[in-house]
């Protein structure tokens, strides 16, 4: 079934930082429509793993690919990254919503959504405005299209960041601590939105310490504290299975 | 007496405004280039620029003016008075602006650069459209300070015998044995500074939507 197709594969990912082992031969895969949560305490390496997937940090060892497009591969026991063009193509497949959103403060909500697709010349400006308007309506911000980010609440900023990432039609969407700045009601709204996005075929990876949120809205939850430092794909299980 | 004084003061004002506007127009963008190079260029170039900034900020502008006019001919470069003054001002103010911009660029959160990268906006477009406008907001008050200092620093070119506003006032004071020219010169500087301040306030308001 298409729904079970693996989109993202990360194999034997290792990363050491300042002598501290953050990731040790970690294996991970993400399927279409899935919402997977990496749950764990601060410093467990879960954010580092996500930053490796989004090419913000380099792995010491391992391979990462989305569909057939590789970001890095292990060759002769060394992690070799793809050339610039391929990394660019890879990055078009994956989106990231930052913990602190990182909206562009001098641009309106609509301009925030348009900047990346315009830069990548994905479509005409007119079509992109239509797409952005539709997405902002989907995330219940239709009335905020022309306002500046600083006038929005945390939950609204989060939804803008999601719409901005979705403008690039990524196959994989990563979230770094999506609920850290939100109250319970806003968290629930985001959770439901994530499920809606996953239904459209996008695979979602959440990095969070909010176990309740992860269990409620994910299809699979991985305990980062246990697995990132000594795991393989074979023994990656649901938290519920571990207990 | 006013009719006698004003024409010479206006000639001086022309020189002051010419030097001021040329320096401002050239050094504000040059400062950005030097700041970017200081941060992103290879270490050797960055070090060289650091030395240049150290010299420009570490020695008086008056000395730099004299070196540009009296010193450069010793190495075969002879400039007329105005060109020498302009060169010294450009080198001096570029160094100050570069450091202001560098501080502004470093104040932008790392996450903004990462967002540009993850969203595939591209380094150049990202810098011009995302980073630079934010830097502008941060540095505007400091740039404003420098621009106002520049208006007053133009009076230093008297050392090269250029007839700017203050020198014209000084001559008028000596000629007519009256302090009125100084009062007028002070008033003209205040008007220039006032106009610049109003302009900067407008820019600041337009930046904060």
From TrEMBL, chain A:
Pfam family membership, one: ABC_tran
Signal peptide: none
Localization in the cell: Cell membrane
Domain ABC transporter: 8-242
Coiled-coil regions listed in the entry: none
PROSITE patterns noted in UniProt: ABC_TRANSPORTER_1, ABC_TRANSPORTER_2
GO MF entries: ATP binding; ATP hydrolysis activity
Entry membrane topology: Peripheral membrane protein
Primary residence: membrane
UniProt KW keywords: ATP-binding, Cell membrane, Membrane, Nucleotide-binding, Transport
GO CC terms of this entry: plasma membrane
Family in the record: Belongs to the ABC transporter superfamily.
Protein name: Amino acid ABC transporter ATP-binding protein, PAAT family
Organism: Isobaculum melis
Phylogenetic placement of the source organism: Bacteria, Bacillati, Bacillota, Bacilli, Lactobacillales
TrEMBL record, chain B:
Species in which this protein is naturally found: Isobaculum melis
Family the entry assigns: Belongs to the binding-protein-dependent transport system permease family.
Protein name per UniProt: Amino acid ABC transporter membrane protein, PAAT family
Amino-acid biosynthesis is among the record's keywords: no
GO cellular component: ATP-binding cassette (ABC) transporter complex
Superkingdom of origin: Bacteria
Compartment(s) of residence: Cell membrane
Signal peptide: none
Keywords tagged on the record: Amino-acid transport, Cell membrane, Membrane, Transmembrane, Transmembrane helix, Transport
Domain ABC transmembrane type-1: from-to ranges: 13-201
PANTHER family attached to this UniProt entry: L-CYSTINE TRANSPORT SYSTEM PERMEASE PROTEIN TCYL, MEMBRANE COMPONENT OF AMINO ACID ABC TRANSPORTER
Residue ranges of the TM segments: 17-40, 52-76, 82-101, 179-200
Single Gene Ontology BP annotation: amino acid transport
Pfam families recorded: BPD_transp_1 (PF00528)
GO molecular function, one term: transmembrane transporter activity
Keyword Methyltransferase: no
Coiled-coil intervals, chain numbering: none
NCBIfam families referenced in this protein's UniProt entry, alphabetically: HEQRo_perm_3TM
PROSITE patterns hit by this protein: ABC_TM1
Lipid bilayer topology: Multi-pass membrane protein
